[in-house]
Amino acid sequence: MMVTFESQSRTTTIQILVSATHSSSEQYPERKSVTIKLYHASALGALYGSQDHLPLPEILDAQTEVIQRAWQWFSSQESKPLLCLYSPSTSVKSAAARVLVEKAKKHGQFAASFFFTPLRDNCSSAERFIPTIAVQLVKNIPGFYDSLNRSMHVDPFVLERSSLETQVDQLILEPLHGVTARGPFLIIIDALDKCASEEDQHEILTQISRIVLAHQDLIRFAVLTSERGRLFNEPEIGSIVCPLTLPDGTILERDTSGEKMDFSKREGGEKRFSLVASFLYTSAYFAFPRLSIFFF
After folding, report:
1. How many whole angstroms separate alpha carbon 114 and alpha carbon 97?
2. Would the pLDDT of 60 be above 90?
3. Phi, psi for 58 (deg, rounded to 5)
4. Angle at the Cα of 245 from the Cα atoms of 240 and 249, rounded to 5 degrees
5. Helix, strand or coil for residue 113?
6. In angstroms, what CA-CA distances link 186 with 10, 65, 74, 221?
7. What is the model's pTM?
């Protein structure tokens, strides 16, 4: 079932990206080709919805409070343009990223996301990061495509360039200058610490800082990480970062059978799974009208 869901989700994502400009493709045949070029240069496994996730979890009150503060950061015009949301627990952090995506979508302010993971092809390096963001902006920010189309026709080989800075200039910064839509729009980056190279992590943060400084009223980034690296403390990045810490703890999710499962983090990175069954009534245990069963 998970495989089927993943396949359906990925197919839907592809259809959305390709059809984002379909209505004008007859008048402008190049429009569809530009979108497909971006699609082929993207890391599809890093898109929200292409992950092997269970349904959205029930977040603890303390974690909900931090996520609400994160949304207040996004909604305030006076806050710094880059959010660093830290949690030592991978499950807590990723759940928070997904909640932020859903919240931004609900308010019509979702721009893009990238979920770093070493478990999927092309999802643990900077190589396909910018095209993956750009192809989502085509769909989610009105007017972005027209500016992007002009930029890509000026330099049709921009997707083959290895320079992240050049890709940011031509696929993000220049097209955003032509956007008249009112922001802000939110881009969520999950698990930056899973990007294999620290050099790539630094370069990604450097380019993110360029984007938010150039378009503070239009674009904001929320970067989630499980490691307190030195990258966010560097002067050129630290000066524009709003740091928040998610408290560690229990996240309740539902497995595919509908049972509640308790995911708690122990020292050493071990996870404890406990399943609380319904109260059982059996004639063999008539002396114990209610019996709780725990599996550790």
Report:
1. 10
2. no
3. -90, 110
4. 165
5. strand
6. 22, 19, 8, 6
7. 0.74
